Model the fold of this input.
Amino acid sequence: MRVLVVDDNEELLDLVGRSLTSDGHDLVFATTVGQALSKLQAMHIDLMVLDLGLPDGSGVQLCRQLREAHYCLPILILTAERAVASRVECLDAGADDYLGKPFAIAELRARVRALARRAPLAGREPVVIGDCRLDFAARHASVNGRQAPVTAREWAILEFLVARRGQIVPRDELLQSAWQRADDAARTSLDVLISRIRKKLGTEIIRTVRGTGYTLDHD
Done:
């Protein structure tokens, strides 16, 4: 898997590069927003590790710009900000996950592995819910025929709900599936992403069962 690491700290680039290379990934580096955009336009990138504070702009703005341009690659944010508001801002901008600095390399590697495991549902026909059509094999979502950009983490949530369609999925089971953990940070992320999915695909697509979890509505 080709991973683009965007950070202006040379020591961090070296550390992250050596760690992810040892997992078999092909690493590409950028130190500015401009360089990151050039790399994305010049080659196929499977996943991006993105710092927030860059010399020529904000990682949050870059993330938002990529989502608006329908880039659906997984994005893992690195940030020194640990406040809930900062995490929510990253998720609202289209990030799939975030990791606070300083961080353990083992956790970074685990998060990258988790994002890389977003395999499509093999052989599944597209799922149609109201005006929304979800093609998991092609990773293509549309509403009334218009493409809707869905991120890797959002696909993971939708895939799990589709696999359990017609059932109520307990909140912690969904967290374990998408995040491999059920802590407060993951719960905050799930709330943001469920809201984001509804905004993109329609408020009726995921129904909250108060006190229990979620279910995928169907016709």
User: Anything to note?
Assistant: Residues 171 and 209 are 10 Å apart (CA to CA).
